[in-house]
Amino acid sequence: MFKVIKKEGSARRGEFVTVHGTVQTPAFMNVATCGAIKGAVSALDLKNIKCQVQLCNTYHLHLRPGDEKVKQMGGLHKFTRWNGPILTDSGGFQVFSLAKLRNIKEEGVYFNSHIDGRKIFMGPEESMRIQSNLASTIAMAFDECVENPSPYEYTKNSVERTTRWLKRCVAEMKRLNSLDDTINKNQMLFGINQGGIYDDLRVNHMKEIAELNLDGYAIGGLAVGEPAETMYHIIEEVEPFAPKDKIRYLMGVGTPVNILESVARGVDLFDCVMPSRNARHGQLFTWDGVRNINNAKYETDESPIDEHCDCPVCRNFSRAYIRHLLKSGEMLGMRLAVLHNLYFYNNLMEVIRTQLDNGTYMEFYEKYRNILGVRI
Q: How far apart are the C-alpha atoms of 322 and 301, rounded to whole Å?
């Protein structure tokens, strides 16, 4: 399913084969939380901005419209009209970040919906059943995402429970994939490495879950407030113990510079709401750094957002026009800004893959790690 084509240091150029298509890695997954990118961007738009993978949210889709209804509609692929790979997260992060009242038990988590307050239970089996109904290409194991920093003993107990939950996820997915009415009988399962900011917990957990021979391995519980250098350190500690022949996914990361740094440390997959969320507020990523299009200096600027970009937005619209739309509260402004940022991210990954193919990634990395995060 995953093949490393070429390496440069720890950085890996690979191919990930799924039932819904082959993903060229490293790759960025575009976050369509409720089945669409916020900012009026559809699955059809994603095809035009070099997107390879769409990521949808188990927790939100379970609440609305309901995973049973999505199954009735033929699964997420038919429902959203995206025909490439889809990854669904387990719902765990949202349970722990959105639910104000929650009670963690061995069987799972009891919590109140952030929408209407109704009581909900989600455990490993429930998460797997929801994701099976959604019929995604890749399902994520149900885990607990602890705050950083959390006490060592609490984190240790959480990791041990996450491992027990993972084994239950494996058993339930095997059962679900064998049922006659399951839409995607080839659904994959990724395990999630946890352990907070503690090296020994992280390493021991990766060693333990690596023995389960899962379809892929994620590093979770990072990019939640800890310094970037701490995140990079954790990746470096964990990477030697992640299976060499399995894809690696760094969850919820991040900025273009985060991606450059993490690719250099052996990560293959990324996702983050940042490009779409920041775009809606006028923060646009370019090859010269980060541009705040709301600044007054762009009021009559006829240039494209990024003069080095060939996305549909930069080919057709000026900084002045997009600034005007955002200032006027026009939905088109958010749509164009989001399309540009997502194109930038997907194109960045394509350039990274080309650099790896050519054996020039580290030279590219050294140049752009000091440029892409600069505020223009």
A: 10
288 is in an annotated binding site: no
340 is in an annotated binding site: yes
199 included as an active-site residue: no
Tokens encoding 355: 């650099």
Whether 143 has a binding-site annotation, put simply, is yes
Q: Residues 286, 267: one domain?
A: no
Residues 371, 376: Cα–Cα separation, whole Å: 10
- Active site residue: 45, 215, 268, 271, which one? 271
Count of positions (residues) in the chain: 376
Domain assignment present for 96: yes
200 is catalytic: no
Tokens 């959105």 sit on residue: 98
Residue 159, pLDDT above cutoff 90: yes
Is residue 362 very low, low, confident or very high in pLDDT (cuts 50, 70, 90)?
very high
The boundaries of the domain holding residue 41 are 2-272
* Given 89, 215, 268, 306, the catalytic residue: 89
Average pLDDT of every residue of the chain:
96
Same domain, yes or no, for 226 and 311? Answer: no
The verdict on residue 220 lying in a domain is yes
> Domain check: are 344 and 215 in the same one?
no
Q: Please state, for a pLDDT cut of 90, what percent of the chain lies above it.
A: 90
This model's pTM is above 0.90? yes
Consult the annotation and say whether 289 binds a ligand. Answer: no
The domain tally of the chain equals: 2
